[in-house]
Structure formats: C-alpha cells, structure tokens
Amino acid sequence: MSQPDVTIATAAAAGRRLLAAGRRVAAAPEWPASAALLLGLLAMVEVTLGAHRSDSTVPFALLLALAATVPLAVVRTHLVVAAATLAVANALALAMSGRLTVAGLVAQVVVLYLVGARHTRWIAGPLLLPFVGYAVAGPLWRADETGAAGERLGAVLLLALVTVALGTGVARRLRRRAAERAADRRMIADTMLEHVARGERARIARELHDVVAHHISMIAVQAETARLTTPGMPVEGARRLVAIAETARAALTEMRRLLGVLRSDAEGVPTRRPQPGLQQLNELLDETRDSSGVTARLIVRGRVRPLDPGIELTAYRIVQEALTNVRRHAPGAAVDVALHYAEEALRLTVRDNGPGPVAGGRTGHGLVGMRERVLMVGGELTAGPAPVSGFLVRATLPLPAVST
Fold first, then answer.
1. Is the domain defined by 278-398 classed in CATH 1.20.272.10?
2. What does the domain layout of the chain look like in residue ranges?
3. 130 SS3 class
4. DSSP state, 265?
5. Could you tell me which of 335, 271, 325 has the C-alpha nearest to residue 298?
6. Beta bridge partners of 382
7. Is 267 exposed, middle or buried, given 0-12, 13-18 or 19+ CB atoms closer than 10 A?
8. In Å, how far from its chain's centre is CA 357?
9. What CA–CA distances, in Å, run from 27 to 30, 105, 168?
10. Which EC number applies (predicted)?
11. How far is CA 38 from the centre of its chain?
C-alpha cells in the first residue's frame, strides 16, 4: 500500500472514531451542560489571551463569549431560545471584532444542526440572517481596502459553515420522517394483510364446518340405521354402533361449539345451500359472462372423478376469486380456466389476456385469500404476470393416493 493510501486510510479511521465518540457524547443525557461549561471556559481563555491589557472592551467581549456558549446547556428544553441567543451573541461579536471564538463557532454549529434536525425551516431559516448580513455587508465597514478581500472570504466561509450545519440537520430530519412514514405504511399494509388473512381463515373454517358437519352427521345416521335395520345383530355389535353414533354426535356438538361462532361475521342471512364444488364451475363461468361480457371457457384434462369436498371447495373459491380479479382489473379480457386431473394432484390454471398488473402496483387482497386456502390443503400457488401478456394464477392441490 502506497503512502497516500495509508494516509487516507488513517484519516478515514480517525474520522470514524471521532464520529463514534460524538455519538456517544450525544447519547449522554448530561452532554449539553458539560459542553456548555467546557466551551464557555475555552471561550473566556481565548478572549483573555487575545485581548490587550488596555482594551476597555474586554469585559463586554467576555460577556459575549459566555452568551455564545453557555446557552448550549438548555438545548434539550429550550432549543429555539438557546439558538436565538447564540445567534445574537455571535452577531454582536462579529460587529465588534469581526471574528468569533472557536468555542462560540462550535456551539453555533451544534445548535444550528439541532434546530435543523428538530424544527421546520421557518424557525431554522431566520437564524442564518445575521451571518448572511455579515457576509454581505460586514467586511465593508470592518476592513480597509487591503484587508477587505480576506475579511469577505472569512465571512463567506463562516456563512457556508453554518449553512452546512443547518442543512445537515434538516436532511437528517427529512430522512427520519421519510423512514417513519415508510414504517407506518408497512405497518398499515401488514395490518391490512393480517386482517384479510384472518377474515379468509374464518370463511374457510365456516365453509369446512358445513362440509365436515355433513359427513359427521352421516356417520351418526348410518350407525343408527345399521343398528336398527340389521336383523339378528349381536348385542356387542349393536353396542358398538350406539357408541359410534354417540361419538359422532358428540364430535359434531364440539365442532359446532368451536367453529359455529365464526358464523357471526358472515355477511347477510346464512343460506342453506350446500357448499359449491367443481360441478358448479360452469354456472360460475356463465355468471361471469352474463355480468361482465368477458369470454370465458373451461378446459378439462385427465380423468374427471369426484374429489374430496374440501379440495373441490378450495378449487372453486380460487376460480371465483380469479374471475373477480379479472372483472375488476381487466374488464373485457378473455379468460381460460383449465383443470388437469392428475393422479397425485389437481392442477388449476386461470389465465387472462388483459394488460397485466401495473408496474409498481400493489398486490390485491384476493391473492391473500387464495394462498390461505391453498396452504390449508397443503398445496402451492403462484400468481403474477403471464409470459406474454395478462395475468396467470396457477394452483396445485394434492390429492390422496387412490387405493387399488
């Protein structure tokens, strides 16, 4: 590594250490009082060492030095008052001697940074006016012709320094607000998604309650029927059938007690219609054609056979939600609904030829419900832009193995 590289690396490391030390100091609750005391002492020493013994303005200069540093102690509770006091004191010091103490300059930079980080520009902007005025007119009466250039350069550099300090604070405030707004948006979006997911789970549980309740009721009815209609049944067999019927009824009662409350969030009056399945897909497509005028067709491949009611209900709801999204986001688009009956899974595809999702658009809540339903049966779902155009929903619903 060359010598310049070593020097740059050393300077960067020193800068990082200085920044870390500054953060530790700023995190301490007593740092304003400590900084005010230290800077006040340094300012008084600087004024005392730089003054002539016969100078009658030394007491006033010492008072200005304290006024330009000590108010730093109250920046936590009275930041605007402290900033205004420091600005006035430094303006008077510039008018009297044409220079600031190093301690006073440090205090001014720190206070302007804090004002920019905590207050609006309507409060922070006027604090720069004394330095703007000095940069514009101060050197005209503070220096003769030979020293006017140097005096003006110093005034401009001072204005640039305090402006950078204030601008850095403002930038930090804006970044913090942007981060807070982004965090709020993420929290709201997460809350909405969680709310939608909970609602969809409630609807799923409510629908499955109907499906499972039907089967459990059939178990109880078949057990009672077998006991009453089988002639010459042994006593032990009849007792076991009674136990089966009682167990089924107890399970039905417990399930209704646990899941029946989910009906309270149902919209409208509950209906007595059975839960839909794949046999009702044609009716769903006809309804879609009549309501929105889209061209919809059903494509079926494989050996069609009855499936588990939960699988059929899940497939039906996925198609229903996908068609709703087409009507909402791609009106007039053609839709293909494809069912592939494989031995191990039912593969479902819904594709439209609409414009597809808008770049940067948000994912609809309907997809959350689709994923909840597919996960419930252990399947997989993908949804997104189609390869050429339009939108594609693809779901794989596993089927139980067929015994031979």
1. no
2. 3-186, 201-265, 278-398
3. helix
4. G
5. 335
6. 394
7. exposed
8. 21
9. 9, 22, 18
10. 2.7.13.3
11. 43
Element (H, E) at 49: helix 31-50
As a whole number of angstroms, the distance between CA 257 and CA 255 comes to: 5
Q: Which two tokens stand for residue 322?
A: 């996908």
Confidence of residue 94 (pLDDT cuts 50, 70, 90): confident
Q: 331 phi and psi, to 5 degrees?
A: -60, 135
Structure tokens at 351: 């594709």
Check if the beta carbon of residue 393 is closer than 8 Å to that of residue 322: yes
Helices (DSSP H) in 330-380: which residue ranges?
A: 365-376
The residues near 164 (Cβ < 8 Å, ≥ 6 apart) are none
For residue 347, the cross-strand partners are 340, 396
| Residues 275/210, Cβ–Cβ less than 8 Å | yes
Contact 153, 135 (CB under 8 A): no
Once rounded to an integer, what is the mean pLDDT over residues 339-345? Answer: 92
Asked if 119 and 151 touch (Cβ cutoff 8 Å), the reply is no
Least confident among 19-33, 39-53, 324-338: 19-33
Contact 34, 52 (CB under 8 A): no
* pLDDT in the model for residue 397: 93
Residue 180, token pair as written in the block: 């807070």
Q: Alpha-carbon distance 98 to 152, whole Å?
A: 10
Return all residues near 140 (Cβ < 8 A) that are at least 6 apart.
Answer: 148
